Amino acid sequence: MAARASGDRAALCVLDRDGAELAGIAVEIADDEAERARGLMGRTMLAPGTGMLFFYESPREVAFWMQDTLIPLDMIFLDEEGRIARIHAGARPLDETPIPSGGPVRYVLELGGGQAAKLGLVPGFAVAPLVP
């Protein structure tokens, strides 16, 4: 799997609670304020097996919204170890209702709507590597 670098893409691996590899995901990295603010706004599609990974310097509570986002998304909130803390499935395009992390997180993975369920993601599973 590829190492992460600012503005780059990376290959991530989803692991179940036993550490078995479930799936690979190719992601774009959003690790500065401008990239996080822009996110996936204006996109008209997001291919299965791809997404965007948002990095924060330290764990914090965050909230996302779907302003100017044209496609449904699943938001996977990850703790400092890369474990799934919460999944918000099916965020609606253009909806400006805040979607809170529900606690401190260090990473947020956005996938196309319905992809979290197709991949079998549940809280407690992990995403790796997540070393900045």
Automatic annotation (TrEMBL):
Gene3D superfamilies, A to Z: Protein of unknown function DUF192 (2.60.120.1140)
Superkingdom field: Bacteria
One Pfam family cited in the UniProt record for this chain: DUF192
InterPro entries xrefs: DUF192, Saro_0823-like_sf
Designated name of the protein: DUF192 domain-containing protein
